[in-house]
Amino acid sequence: MPHDVDRDRLDAILRQLGRPFELFACDPALADTAQFCAAYGFELADSANTIVVVGKADPRRYAACIVLATHRLDVNRTVRDRLGTRKASFAGGDETRTLTGMEIGGVTPFGLPADLPIWVDAEVMTRPRIVLGGGSRSWKVLASPEVLLELPGAEVVAGLAARVD
Q1: Which CATH number does the domain housing residue 46 bear?
Q2: Between the CA of residue 22 and those of 36, 68, 133, what are the distances in Å?
């Protein structure tokens, strides 16, 4: 098997946090949440997506939001208000790649720029285990949600997202 730089980088970052974790290899074509869960037998309720958002101001303001796949991020109120801007939206693919070095579908909170706030929806913290992106579309991270509290700039936010029925 060829040397995997993405895996090595992710493993090194996670080891520094001092919490148990497992790296899970996946087919990049199945990295999107619904396809991943269906293909590998994970529950959507245990899948936590890392979504980069942008506040449309000058200069632009960014944050990484972590929400369960069963929830919808409240961009128009909570995110916008926390960013302190009149408008907010999801960052596009190019903007996400430029800011994080990661592709949508593989964004992970591990290894983000130090000045990027990380907002974790409070519901994420209720799960015994979560599945997170691994920094590329080839890897996922399995860990308890408490691992997120080890990240610099991470903050648990009540009402960041709402459950989708």
Answers
A1: 3.90.960.10
A2: 16, 19, 12
Count of domains for the chain? 1
Residues 6+ apart with CB under 8 A from 103: 93, 96, 97, 136, 137
Residues 145-162 have a mean pLDDT of 96
* Distance of alpha carbon 56 from alpha carbon 44, whole angstroms: 30
Dihedral, 76, 80, 85, 91 alpha carbons, nearest 10? -90
| Entry pTM | 0.94
Instruction: Report how far residue 45's alpha carbon sits from residue 154's, in angstroms, rounded to the nearest whole number.
Output: 21
Domain residue limits at 20 = 5-163
8 A C-beta contact, residue 144 and residue 131: no
- What tokens does 5 get? 């730089």
